[in-house]
Design brief:
Blueprint (H helix, E strand, L loop, with lengths): L1 E3 L4 E4 L5 H9 L8 E5 L5 H4 L2 H7 L4 E3 L1 H10 L7 E3 L6 E3 L2 E7 L8 E6 L3 E5 L7 H7 L4 E5 L4 H6 L4 H8 L7 H13 L4 E5 L8 H12 L4 E5 L7 H4 L5 E3 L1
Length: 248
């Protein structure tokens, strides 16, 4: 995803093709050369599949914590010269903003979310099976958050995934359900967050309208703004059923 304060432009992960990233940036008037850095959360394919081509064609700086960085260098040798290892839990500068990584509990040796402070404060946390104190600390007080609303539990349990995969997703190192996300969103809004973006929805075990309805119910009367991030693989008209709105 693209995050910008108007002066500093960042990518968080690169899980789609370079071509799609270039096209998406062009719609905002930017190119990859305008990107100050790519913040990587972890090395699973849906978060780095476009990174190799980006590094081949552009002089990009990649930011990742130690273990994630080591995995990246093993998978993408071109990352070795572009990698800046970030200290988890400590602020570090990228362009005109300050960034802090925090651990998220997922089924990999290391996975992080990011908090970015500039003219405002944005925080992102996906790929986590539960909300830990460290995750809460990374999210609380941010003006805008993007949090995981990965699956509808009924769709997952009744769906065609193998039993072991269902157990992994439902585990403390898997993914947050719509209900888990809604509870987290309500906590964050009570502490001052004004905008909640639902992300990392499963194409197989969720629908944007289900995720939106679950969290909207928890935020009713709060005045917070709620929206779903675009989900590749669904028709635009379907995503359009869950526009940004104010829950009041």
């Amino acid at each position: 995803m693209l995050l910008s304060d108007g002066d500093t432009h960042l990518l968080i992960d690169a899980g789609i093709s370079m071509r799609r990233i270039e096209q998406s940036l062009a719609r905002t008037g930017l190119t990859v050369n305008d990107i100050a850095g790519v913040l990587i959360t972890h090395e699973h394919a849906d978060h780095i599949s476009g990174l190799g081509m980006l590094l081949k064609h552009y002089d990009l700086t990649v930011y990742a914590p130690h273990t994630v960085g080591a995995r990246l260098c093993g998978m993408l040798p071109a990352a070795a010269d572009r990698l800046r290892v970030v200290p988890v839990g400590e602020l570090f500068p990228v362009g005109g903003v300050r960034v802090r990584a925090f651990h998220t509990p997922h089924d990999t040796d290391e996975s992080v979310g990011y908090r970015v402070e500039g003219r405002g404060c944005f925080a992102l946390a996906t790929d986590m099976g539960e909300v830990t104190d460290e995750v809460l600390d990374g999210l609380l007080g941010a003006d805008t958050v993007l949090i995981e609303s990965n699956h509808d539990v009924t769709m997952l349990v009744d769906g065609g995934y193998p039993v072991q995969l269902k157990r992994r997703i439902l585990s403390a190192h898997g993914h947050l359900s719509n209900a888990d996300c809604a509870a987290l969103a309500a906590r964050l809004v009570r502490e001052g967050t004004g905008t909640v973006i639902l992300g990392h929805l499963s194409r197989e075990n969720n629908r944007p309208e289900l995720a939106f309805a679950e969290t909207a119910g928890k935020l009713e009367g709060s005045g917070a703004e709620l929206c779903c991030a675009p989900v590749f693989g669904w028709l635009e008209r379907e995503v359009g059923k869950t526009p940004c709105c104010t829950s009041d």
